[in-house]
Each structure stands twice: as C-alpha cells, then as structure tokens.
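ERR on first pass: missing label on line 2. Operator R.T. fixed the label and resubmitted. Corrected input:
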Amino acid sequence: DAKTTQPPSMDCAEGRAANLPCNHSTISGNEYVYWYRQIHSQGPQYIIHGLKNNETNEMASLIITEDRKSSTLILPHATLRDTAVYYCIVPKAAGNKLTFGGGTRVLVKP
Amino acid sequence: EAGVAQSPRYKIIEKRQSVAFWCNPISGHATLYWYQQILGQGPKLLIQFQNNGVVDDSQLPKDRFSAERLKGVDSTLKIQPAKLEDSAVYLCASSLEALGSPLHFGNGTRLTVT
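pass 2 clean. output:
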C-alpha cells in the first residue's frame, strides 16, 4: 500500500467542521484513497473513498488535490459521536487489503 | 442489512490454552478477513479468504494460528497454544467480491491471555 501520513491527534469543536489531512505522495495513478474511522470498542467503519474527483456522502466529504498527493476528509458539522480514530488508507490497486497506520485521534469537544 | 457478527465478545484464557473465534459475514459477501488489533495500534491483517479459499495468509503465525471458512460463509480463527502477546482484539470483516468494495467490520472479540 502507498504510505500515508496523518497527524496523530486533533481537537474539534462540536458543530464546527473538522478537516482531517492525509499525505500520500507515493500514490499510483489507479489507487484509491479510503477513509475509515474507529469509535472506541467498535470495529472500523467505512466512511468514503475517491480516486481523483471530490466525493461527498451522508457522512463526509473527501477533497483530493489535483496531483493526488494529499487529501482532506471533512466532517461538516462535527458531533460528540464523531470522536474516533480516523484512518486514511491507500490500498494497492490489485486488491482490497487494508493496511492501517496509526490514524488521527479526533476528539470533538462540547 | 445485518452486519458482520462475531462471537464471543470477550474471552479470557491462560497462556498455553486454546481459543476459537467465530465470524458470520454479511450475506453475499465473498471476501472475508481476519485482523488483529493490539491496544494502541491499527488493525493488522492476518488472513484473507475469497469464498472458501485463502488469498493471503502471509502474516498469520501458522505455528499457532489457524483459520478456516467452510462452505464459503462462516469462518473460525483458532489460536493454539496462546501466548501473552496474543492479547488483542480480533476483528472480522467482509466485502463484496468486486475490487475496491469497502470492508464491513464486526465489533471484534477482545482476547486477554493471562
């Protein structure tokens, strides 16, 4: 998998947007960027993925830079339930295997 | 849609004992994964099945860990004999066969080896 770099932790105010950065400078042209999150005592949960274009779903938005070397996950209105570890993953194009790094521990504060 | 089911939720055993974990994936999901998550770390892939065949078991400690997926549905992961360092959460995930399909995880089995 392409190596990803994320800040180890960040705080966010409840109701505000949370912007989570991820660097993946070695990404190949046909590799997707995936985001998962893991709430305490639960298994990881799929959030969103994208290749080149920005993507949005009911949970979040994904902004990928034009050179694809970095991306940002946006939680538009963070709630206390969004407190979790967020993982940015770029699996090899040939398979679905995910290699998890340390992720970003996000704490949403009231 | 029912999620990935795992049991038991918690298990405490002594070292050198054996233990087994069970996973029932989402109906129709051909691919099944077992991950190990040590406290404070991200999950690490142990084994991947496609239907009832093994796709990748390169990180499975085969001297003590074994896994099977009979009939391409449910799966069991066994540890025999357990070591202290096997204390972790064991996560099962499944996905559709299509390349790039997201993984759906169960809530895991927390194993404590004393």
